[in-house]
Design brief:
The chain has 249 residues and is mainly beta. The chain folds into two domains: 106 residues, Immunoglobulin-like (Sandwich); 80 residues, Sandwich (Immunoglobulin-like). 4% of the residues lie in helices and 37% in strands. The protein has a four-stranded antiparallel sheet, with no helix packed on it. The longest helix is centred in the first third of the chain and has 7 residues. It is rod-shaped and about 145 Å long. The termini are far apart. The model has no long low-confidence stretch (mean pLDDT 89).
């Protein structure tokens, strides 16, 4: 059983087991793959199920041109904690099983998902390795905020209804409160004619980064001013009464 007829370092028994020629030094038994490579190991949260993560490739000393047939699978073992979050096709394509939420997976500001993968060659020789998939936090942004507002002095207060994709409350700042004053709830009170820039911002917090600021230009026009005469009468041949009026607007 220990005889090595062709002197290639493999016994005749092993070569017969693997289907190589025990009398040809250039024909050696199959070796299992020695490593796995993943083309991409990160994905942004909130993508739909079946989103492509990356492609696995086998590193096999018997197949330097990588033209062999391999079967890839998720397997139990050390580093398999997030196997259920992913689907691995037999050809090595790694997909998400469902939409992934950074906040649900985050620990100390990072979300790393561990999977364990096995690759088997056409002789069923296999290699296993654990991989860390980085789940990226989707940057928040502000929406429902118009870029230009026109009003007239004397108009009723109105509300800004900007929202952030993180769900955190949006805050506001007015560059000219003497024209347009805005409170913490986004209610704008018009204080005079002119122009002001209202900035909507969300500074983030915890694991959420700040959103890019948005600006709205508020132009407040002057109100119409009417002079209203007060009614007055005089008797025949009497002096004219004093005429009075007031302004409205």
């Amino acid at each position: 059983d220990q005889e090595d007829s062709d002197g290639d370092g493999f016994t005749d028994h092993d070569e017969n087991e693997w289907g190589s020629d025990p009398f040809d030094a250039d024909s050696v038994p199959n070796e299992p793959p020695v490593d796995l490579h993943l083309t991409n190991a990160s994905i942004t949260e909130n993508n739909p199920a079946t989103t492509l993560v990356g492609q696995f490739e086998a590193i096999d000393p018997d197949d330097p041109e990588q033209i062999g047939q391999y079967v890839f699978s998720l397997v139990n073992g050390q580093g398999d904690e997030a196997n259920e979050d992913f689907h691995l096709d037999a050809n090595g394509t790694l997909l998400t099983n469902h939409s992934l939420d950074f906040e649900a997976k985050e620990i100390d500001g990072n979300a790393t998902l561990s999977i364990r993968v096995r690759v088997s060659d056409d002789h069923n020789a296999s290699f296993e390795k654990a991989f860390s998939i980085i789940l990226l936090d989707e940057s928040q942004f502000i929406s429902n905020f118009v870029a230009e507002l026109n009003a007239t002095y004397g108009d009723e207060p109105f509300d800004l209804n900007a929202t952030s994709t993180s769900g955190l409350p949006v805050q506001y700042f007015s560059s000219n409160p003497s024209v347009a004053e805005v409170d913490a709830n986004g209610t704008v009170n018009l204080k005079g004619a002119g122009q002001a820039t209202i900035t909507a911002f969300q500074n983030g917090g915890g694991i959420t980064d700040a959103a890019p600021d948005l600006n709205a230009t508020v132009t407040v026009g002057k109100a119409d001013l009417d002079a209203i005469a007060h009614e007055a009468t005089r008797a025949y041949l009497q002096e004219n009464p004093e005429l009075t009026f007031h302004y409205e607007g």
